[in-house]
Specification:
The chain has nine helices and seven strands; from the N terminus they run αααβααβββαβααβαβ. The chain is of the alpha+beta class. Strand 2 and strand 3 form a beta hairpin. Helix 1 packs across helix 3, helix 3 packs antiparallel against helix 7 and helix 4 packs across helix 8. It folds into two domains: 40 residues, no CATH class; 198 residues, NADH Oxidase (3-Layer(aba) Sandwich). The termini are far apart. It has a seven-stranded antiparallel sheet with strand order 1-4-3-2-5-7-6, sandwiched between helices.
Length: 246
């Protein structure tokens, strides 16, 4: 117990340092402790979520009515959406495509070293049976945990300088914890994490197309404002927004 507390204390000191300083000490006990803390506060048990009620999502479908080739051919960026809600099944399918689990506990998106730095949030405005709010997706449980109640779409649109973002019934927010990858890959972590975000976005684009929905990857936003709107943990960096609708 004393050793564990010592490791956590050392990690806490590292978190307050600039990322470059943390990457330089990616060996030994501190690196192991960082990896441990990353697992403890990762997708399945982020701080502050333990006692929150989870929203179960329908089991993702492994077959659809559109081929991969057709989805690739029909994929396009969409910034106008029809009024009306999404179904829980559609939201669950999109989240599964973004970061769900597959055979053997792997994810739907490749990850350098299987370190899984990606965290996905859903800013829900109009989804049947799910109250508006900011939710955190837990991949292995395939459920959502409420982070902040209330419709935050207007605030998110303001943070992104684009009014049309508020028209989407749901926006998926792709965030990442860079230190999870930096433990093993040091200064290359940023590159690898950004590559992973691209894979997530591609999956969501194609899954949305297969569901006869539309989306666009948005990179223009104020990081600090998005973090405030979503009440993101300090180590969760927002890297992309994907408003989704019909």
């Amino acid at each position: 117990m004393r050793c564990w507390r010592s490791c956590v204390a050392r990690v806490a000191r590292r978190i307050r340092e600039p990322p470059a300083a943390r990457w330089r000490c990616g060996t030994g006990g501190v690196a192991a402790a960082v990896a441990l803390v990353g697992l403890l506060v990762g997708s399945e048990g982020a701080v502050g979520q333990v006692k929150r009620r989870a929203v179960a999502l329908p089991k993702p479908a492994l077959e659809g009515d559109m081929s991969l080739e057709t989805a690739i051919a029909q994929r396009e960026s969409q910034r106008e959406f029809e009024p009306g809600p999404l179904t829980p099944a559609a939201l669950g399918q999109l989240l599964w495509a973004a970061q769900g689990t597959t055979t053997g506990g792997r994810r739907t998106v490749p990850s350098a070293g299987a370190l899984y730095p990606i965290e996905v949030y859903a800013v829900v405005g109009l989804v049947e049976g799910i109250a508006p709010g900011v939710y955190h997706y837990r991949p292995t449980r395939h459920d959502l945990v409420l982070v902040e109640a209330g419709d935050r779409r207007d605030e998110l649109a303001t943070a992104a300088f684009q009014d049309w973002v508020a028209d989407a019934p749901v926006t998926l927010v792709i965030a990442a914890v860079l230190d999870r990858t930096a433990v093993k890959y040091g200064s290359r972590a940023q590159r690898y994490v950004h590559m992973e975000v691209g894979c997530v976005a591609a999956n969501v684009y194609l899954q949305a197309t297969a569901l006869h929905l539309g989306t666009t990857l948005v990179g223009a936003f104020t990081d600090r404002s998005v973090k405030r709107v979503l009440s993101l943990p300090a180590e969760h960096a927002p890297l992309g927004l994907m408003p989704v609708g019909r």
